[in-house]
Write a structure and sequence with these properties.
alpha/beta; 18% strand; Rossmann fold; 4 domains; seven-stranded mixed beta sheet; 572 residues; six-stranded parallel beta sheet; globular
Length: 572
């Protein structure tokens, strides 16, 4: 109580000082403004007091399960980054719990369904008015994520008994909210302050929701975005299965009201870049993506225009398999990163220090000395300096983007693949890995093993760094894995959250007879494998699969009950 009184007193003093500076010669105006502010603060405090009073009188559920409601809003980039925070939150609670995800923005459930359709850490997705949360459910924690995480309510007594970690998370978040109350009371108008805070504290966009650092989110955190195999057919539909292509887009969001934004690169720059790119790389196609023809103007020179022709799931597949993506900073650039790919991201009104990914090439011109996100309400539609065309974006030349494209394509390496062995039984896999690898520090990745973590536990006796992407999770799975010295992660066979060429040994023991699009699974397994690494696959019948992209014949591989050892080497 003492701390709250001190907080409100300092808030009052700060307000009086500010008004006295602003209206130094007008005591009447200071008095009127202060009276209005005090009334507003009184009714706000009364509102929240009533809210908590009503909520505390609601009957609590009697079960052992912790019930959590999380409210989110925003576009695809926002939801993806919030999803990372929610995933890491769920992993650390270490008590049976459920998480219901709400959005109060009309039409956003389409994005939630796309991002979380196979997310085991989400129980329900609901599009509703916020107040319906009180009518329909009883929760131990209600929070809202809008850049930072805002704890709206938590039952501290109940939570402390069940999950000390969650209690500590809520308590520390409330301390942060008290200190930086403007971040939460005036959103989104104070997003510029949040960005400045992030820069001062060396935090990126993906780390803002982890403002207290308890979720452990950094640039090495495994990202989550599931790809549905049925959407892969889009590649064949447009003849993109066997060719190389890049993707470009000029659009910010499906919910924008205008086809122009200060975050968009001038269309003439896009078209000049496409001309330069075709001249340098005539065999690589340029594919234009976009939400709709109304919001995304068609560009001259593209080889395939798919604006308005794809679902979110199909767009994700197209992005996944493009060599790189070119765009202004926005949701599709975020999506490409969550698909473990790279972009050329062009920055203007937003900060590359906050919104940029180190894996991307983030371009900023010299047309303006500063970013201006949310300095005014219309920052996204009008240049705040009065220019017809935002000079921050226009000053990034097509030649700068072309230089970045050259670098990305030079960084790519060509590999050859081969079958090393195909006559060993599954019970000998661990022994074979030990025999072939003397260094206990090698990186081993076990993806969706039909036997869970059993093989990984056996290998842990000889190796230190083992990451397991599992299919089956309980509330305490992550704590148990940590105790066993393993890193456990959510994931998807078609989009494994690992960097290119990062793993010494990759193991896939398939137990799903219905698995499809095996060639694309193999492409992903080979992607994360280091040159001269070892890929081990069992439980897969390759006899009817087309492995020609890897230069491998199906008859070289073991039958479905056997084990095949593949290798990857740099091509001459």
């Amino acid at each position: 109580m003492k701390e709250e009184a001190e907080f409100y007193f300092s808030k009052l003093k700060s307000r009086i000082d500010g008004l006295q500076r602003k209206y130094a010669n007008n005591i009447i105006k200071v008095s009127l403004r202060l009276s209005w502010w005090l009334c507003r603060e009184f009714f706000r405090a009364l509102f929240y007091s009533c809210f908590y009073s009503i909520f505390k009188r609601l009957p609590r559920h009697n079960g052992d399960e912790l019930k959590i409601a999380i409210v989110v809003s925003g576009g695809i980039g926002d939801i993806l980054t919030y999803g990372t925070a929610i995933k890491e939150l769920s992993k650390r609670i270490n008590h049976c719990h459920s998480i219901d995800l709400y959005t109060n923005e009309k039409g956003r459930k389409i994005i939630l369904d796309f991002v979380f359709h196979k997310a085991r850490f989400i129980s329900n997705l609901v599009e509703t008015n916020f107040w319906n949360i009180l009518k329909k459910h009883e929760y131990d924690v209600i929070m809202r994520i809008d850049r930072c995480t805002n704890i709206l309510y938590y039952n501290s007594e109940c939570i402390e008994k069940k999950s000390k970690w969650l209690g500590n998370f809520c308590k520390n978040s409330k301390i942060f909210i008290t200190k930086y109350y403007k971040f939460f009371e005036y959103t989104p108008h104070y997003h510029t302050l949040i960005a400045q805070w992030a820069i001062l504290n060396n935090k990126t966009r993906i780390q803002k929701s982890d403002q207290c650092g308890l979720l452990g989110i950094d640039n090495s955190t495994h990202l989550f975005l599931d790809l549905a195999p049925e959407n892969i057919k889009i590649l064949k539909s447009f003849g993109l299965e066997e060719i190389q292509y890049i993707t470009v887009q000029r659009g910010i969001s499906a919910y924008e009201k205008s086809s122009e934004s200060t975050r968009m690169w001038p269309i003439r720059h896009h078209e000049k870049f496409i001309e330069l790119f075709h001249r340098a790389y005539p065999d690589i196609k340029v594919v234009q993506l976009g939400y709709s023809n109304k919001l995304c103007k068609s560009m001259d020179g593209v080889d395939i225009n798919l604006v308005g022709k794809t679902s979110l799931g199909e767009l994700a597949v197209l992005l996944k398999h493009s060599l790189f993506h070119l765009d202004g900073e926005g949701g599709v650039v975020h999506m490409k990163r969550f698909l473990n790919g790279r972009s050329i991201a062009i920055f203007g009104p937003t900060s590359e220090k906050v919104f940029g990914y180190p894996e991307n090439i983030n371009l900023r011109g010299n047309g303006c000395s500063s970013w201006c996100e949310w300095v005014s309400d219309d920052w996204d539609s009008k240049c705040l300096r009065g220019f017809e065309e935002a000079p921050c974006m226009a000053s990034v030349s097509p030649e700068m983007a072309m230089e970045a494209a050259d670098k990305l394509l030079r960084d790519r390496k060509n590999f050859s693949y081969s079958v090393e062995r195909n006559s060993i039984g599954e019970d000998k896999i661990a022994d074979h890995i030990v025999d072939k690898n003397a260094d206990k520090r090698i990186k081993i990745v076990d993806v969706f093993n039909k036997n869970g973590t059993s093989l990984a536990k056996t290998l842990r006796k000889n190796f230190d760094d083992i990451t397991v992407f599992d299919l089956n999770f309980e509330f305490d799975s992550f704590a148990k894995a940590e105790k066993d010295g393993l890193t456990l992660e959510y994931g998807c066979l078609y989009n494994i959250s690992m960097s290119d060429n990062s793993s010494d040994v990759v193991i896939w023991q398939n137990g799903d007879a219905a698995v499809t699009q095996i060639m694309y699974i193999m492409k992903e397994l080979f992607r994360i494998l280091k040159p001269r690494g070892m890929l081990i696959v069992s439980g897969v019948s390759f006899q009817e699969e087309d492995l020609s992209p890897f230069g491998i014949l199906p008859e070289q591989c073991s039958p479905s009950k056997g084990v095949t050892f593949f290798s990857k080497t740099l091509a001459e």
